[in-house]
Specification:
- The chain has 15 helices and 16 strands.
- The chain folds into 3 domains: 138 residues, no CATH class; 204 residues, 3-Layer(aba) Sandwich (Rossmann fold); 38 residues, no CATH class.
- It is α/β, with parallel strands linked by helices.
- Helix 4 runs parallel beside helix 5.
């Protein structure tokens, strides 16, 4: 038994974490690196969970084969068509990946400009340059239901959320440009994404945080409700494969999800068991009750605004009804393609122990977890001194640890001698 920021983690988490298989290497894909010209790719939205995972993959796995550029919004604003044209003409990339998205609760203008106009203008530039355009979309474009295919989609109506509406319009325009303008594109639809380094706490990690923070007293779902999940760490392998095999994947839409859907109540209770918490209790709260509570919170937030108190509600509340409706995506098309899953046995359940350790540590350091325990996994003498004896720590560092690094000095002296 050990503790991470107040949570007693049982030994079974270590037994589970040993089942996680490391991502296979890509040595076979780099054999031709010395014989071929290095390609340049542009990644939009490289600061998010998906974009960051893609950037890390290409920079660490394919440095001799593909050079990835991930410009910040200051260098390239996807809302500005002139920025797009100027940047792509200067860089002359071999392909573009768009992982950018406006926040879920963005207003109509921001969602329209980032999710839709940005997508269209990026596609227009790629079409003019004659390069592939890889677009990451969302299951928000799909209705509720089971075994939904790539041909399924919601009807475009004013009642859709700004996020879903802009994503759906983007997919339709890309198909139109592919048929009428010769655009070489691929749309990859993602479901509920899980993975490390989600610094914004959204999607699945919002659910995980709610359980970890003990702010879910009961189960806000019903039995049998299942959803598809997307492994963020597997996605770069597929994107790389799509870039390398344009003839097969051009003009196509694919669902990139784990083959087996996950029942939400089972996942929530599994997280609860790992954290050894008492909540949420196995009591299923009906949707009308949750809907009424959501309405009350929204009204309360507006009321408090009158007194200068800003209340922030998670944007995921707009998808609350999906906690009571199944949405599972078929991945037959993906499985029948030439892509081979690098970790076929890896699922949300097999990586959950690693996610628990990573996020509890991160959220604890950021003081985001309200439940706190003085016991930690391992001990850090410097941390204890920093917390309780900062003056002694400062004096000891001044005495022992402020001299210039000797190895750096030696290298500097050596380089100056060679000059």
């Amino acid at each position: 038994m050990f503790f991470i920021h107040g949570y007693a983690i049982s030994d079974k988490i270590f037994r589970e974490i040993t089942k996680i298989h490391p991502t296979p290497g890509t040595e076979d894909k780099m054999v031709k690196a010395s014989q071929t010209k290095k390609r340049v790719g542009v990644l939009i939205g490289g600061s998010g969970l998906i974009g960051g995972t893609l950037a890390h993959y290409f920079k660490t796995r394919t440095p001799d084969e593909i050079e990835i550029r991930a410009p910040s919004s200051k260098k390239l604003s996807i809302r500005n068509s002139q920025d797009i044209k100027a940047y792509l003409k200067r860089v002359q990339p071999d392909f573009v990946i768009n992982a950018a998205m406006a926040a879920l609760d963005s207003d109509a203008q921001l969602a329209f400009e980032v999710n839709y106009l940005g997508t269209v203008n990026m596609a227009r530039a790629c079409c003019a340059l004659g390069i592939p355009y890889i677009h990451l979309s969302s299951a928000s474009t799909l209705p509720s239901g089971e075994n939904l295919t790539e041909d399924d989609h919601l009807p475009l109506s004013p009642d859709l959320s700004n996020y879903a509406k802009s994503k759906l319009m983007s997919e339709r325009t890309l198909r139109y440009m592919g048929a009428n303008q010769g655009l070489d594109y691929t749309v990859i639809r993602l479901a509920v994404v899980y993975g490390e380094h989600d610094h914004k706490i959204q999607g699945f990690h919002r659910l995980f945080f709610t359980v970890a923070d003990e702010s879910m007293p009961c189960l806000f779902t019903k039995k049998g409700v299942a959803h598809s999940f997307t492994n963020a760490n597997k996605l770069p392998h597929f994107v790389h494969h799509v870039v390398d095999h344009r003839e097969e994947f051009s003009g196509e839409t694919y669902h990139f999800v784990d083959p087996i859907p996950v029942e939400l109540d089972d996942l929530i209770l599994t997280i609860k068991s790992y954290l050894e918490l008492n909540t949420p209790r196995e009591i299923y709260v009906p949707y009308p009750v949750i809907k009424a509570g959501k309405y009350f919170l929204e009204r309360l937030a507006k009321f408090l605004n009158w007194f200068g108190i800003t209340v922030w509600l998670p944007p995921e509340l707009m998808f609350l009804e999906y906690f009571y409706q199944s949405q599972t995506l078929a991945c037959d098309k993906l499985q029948e393609s030439s892509f081979v899953d690098p970790c076929p046995n890896e699922t949300i359940y097999t990586v959950l122990p690693k996610l628990v350790i990573y996020y509890l540590t991160r959220w604890g350091h950021l003081n985001l977890i309200t439940t706190f325990n003085e016991e930690f996994f391992g001990s850090n003498e410097l941390e204890e001194d920093f917390r309780f004896n900062p003056r002694d720590l400062l004096n000891s560092i001044h005495v022992d640890s402020t001299t210039p690094f000797k190895d750096v000095l030696d290298e500097q002296s050596s380089s100056e001698c060679h000059r």
